[in-house]
Amino acid sequence: MSNHESRSMVLAAVIAGVCLLAGLLLGGYFIGKGVARFKSDTRTVTVKGLVEKEVKADQAVWTLNFRRASADLKDAHAKIIADRDATLAFLKKQGFKNEEITWQPSKTIDKLAREYGQNEQNNRYRYVVTSSLRVTTKNIDAVTRALGATEELLKAGILLDGQQGEGTANPRYVVTAFNALRPQLLAEATKNARFTAEQFASDSGARIGKIRSANQGMIQIFGSEGNDESAPYSPTSTPVKKIRVVSTFEFELR
């Protein structure tokens, strides 16, 4: 092969390589422009949907605690039993059924049997007995009425102990049907969010499309006094609740 032919082949190869490189660069440019155009065409708007609903609790748990002290163990237990019987009669008078009332086991403390009991030798009451009756009912109105009538027990010499757990005048009012309400609340939150997004789209000359993403967000329960009852052991001392749902949605803009 002559030198002239060799130079011609090398030149042709160089030209082909340059053309290939230019083609790749142009192809990448147009592909990049296409992706950028796709991204710019997919506009979105993110809004929050808020809904608040007032509901009434459908279950009450009311614990009535008793405490009696005496120098004689039998005497202390006899007093607790008398308190129980009188309170049980009071609850039935208020309209509660037997299956709604449970008798909690008694607990007895012997002060002299404790490690530091020697310091209480002069204590007049050696034995302390505690117990309780618990009412679990869906009759919320009956619990409210009974709370206002507990003075009858005080007049009968029964002092309800408010230092054990829930206390005497603090029933727990619970919304047990919360899970059944959840779909309705989320549907209303979605509706409110779409309405807000449509207002935004209208102002910008666009239309709302489908939902691209959704976050259920926070669900809170408030008592009628405004106290947050969302946590498992929060106070639930009001029968009327306010449930608040704040969800986040991302809509496409067309």
Can you write the helix and strand succession as a string? HEEHEEHHEHEE
Per DSSP, the total helix count is 5
Q: How would you sum up the global shape?
A: elongated
Total strands: the figure is 7
Q: Largest sheet, described in full?
A: 4 strands, antiparallel
Strand order of the largest sheet: 3-4-2-5
**What is the terminal-to-terminal distance?**
66 Å
As residue ranges, the low-confidence spans are 27-40, 164-168
Radius of gyration: 37 Å
Percentage of residues in DSSP E strands: 25-35%
From the helix content, strand content and strand pairing, which structural class follows?
alpha+beta
Mean pLDDT: 79
Helix fraction by DSSP (H/I, runs of at least 4): 25-40%
Any overview of this molecule?
This protein has 254 residues and is α+β, with helices and mostly antiparallel strands. The chain contains five helices and seven strands. It has helices at 3-41, 73-93, 140-148, 151-155, 178-203, and strands spanning 43-56, 59-70, 101-110, 127-137, 172-174, 208-223, 240-253. The strands form two sheets. It has a four-stranded antiparallel beta sheet. The protein is elongated, with a radius of gyration of 37 Å. The two termini are 66 Å apart. The model is unreliable at 27-40 and 164-168 (pLDDT under 50).
A few lines on this structure:
The protein is built from 5 helices and 7 strands, in the order αββαββααβαββ.
Key terms for this structure?
4-stranded antiparallel β-sheet; single chain; 3-stranded antiparallel β-sheet; alpha+beta; elongated
